[in-house]
Amino acid sequence: MKPATIAKAVAALGLISAVSAYAQSYGNCVITGQKGSIPIKPFIPGQLTVQTVLPAPGWYNGDTTATIKDGFEYCMAANIAYRAGLDKLVIQNVSRDALMTGRTKDFDLALAVVSITPERKKVVNFSVPYFKSNIGVLVKSGSKVTEENIRSKRIGVRQATAGYTYATTFLKPTEPLKVFADTTEVFTALAAGQVDVAMSDTSYLLGQAAKSNGMMKVVAQYSSPQEYGAVFPAGSANEAAINKAIEEMKADGTLASLEQKQLGEKWGTSPAAIPFWKP
């Protein structure tokens, strides 16, 4: 073979390698496990299509699907894609209400900080749990909310959430709950002084506190049995394989590592460091 021909062949191989490296790109995520160990039948061949609800700091670091390079759930999805032998990961931003009423389509799974509840299980199919979250107490920095006086404060919650259920069932405040249609509305009300406390998942509140530039702080949490699960599309043939991947990532320390790096380091503290109050 002539030198020029060899050079072209080497260049072509380099291009192929570059294309392959680009194609199998999972942002800034650390990938573990064995590629192709859990073969699935993706909705679109060659890619894992994952739905979520943005913004979700810590879980997906970026406000648009094009800017996300890491985050707990993003990197969890990347590891599932790798173990499924898929070189491409595509994130779709959807409405939470549409997702939780089974109205979203054309995806493989959703990772969207969704608590598994008996009511939701009647509507959508969940994976095995992958994260445990308690109920946090978010206040404006300098607030005088304490374990002793929280019941007399104006508490904001999102309707039909674990925070709402916990407040009404266990905390039972003396002031009427302020119920909002969306969690972002709860945060806006807290910033505006319309409520004294925002109650939701500790992990979710830590993300909000981290991006508030010191204006808000998670001062406590209440113990809760709630756990997060992936949501599968109706009739998915991949539930067993993806559940296997999640169990393996729990067993081999992948999810624990993601919690520390993607949540603890990004937020400046881990959920485990937040003190517990009693209702």
TrEMBL record:
<protein>
    <submittedName>
        <fullName>Extracellular solute-binding protein family 3</fullName>
    </submittedName>
</protein>
<feature type="signal peptide">
    <location>
        <begin position="1"/>
        <end position="23"/>
    </location>
</feature>
<keyword id="KW-0732">Signal</keyword>
<dbReference type="Pfam" id="PF00497">
    <property type="entry name" value="SBP_bac_3"/>
</dbReference>
<feature type="domain" description="Solute-binding protein family 3/N-terminal">
    <location>
        <begin position="64"/>
        <end position="266"/>
    </location>
</feature>
<dbReference type="InterPro" id="IPR001638">
    <property type="entry name" value="Solute-binding_3/MltF_N"/>
</dbReference>
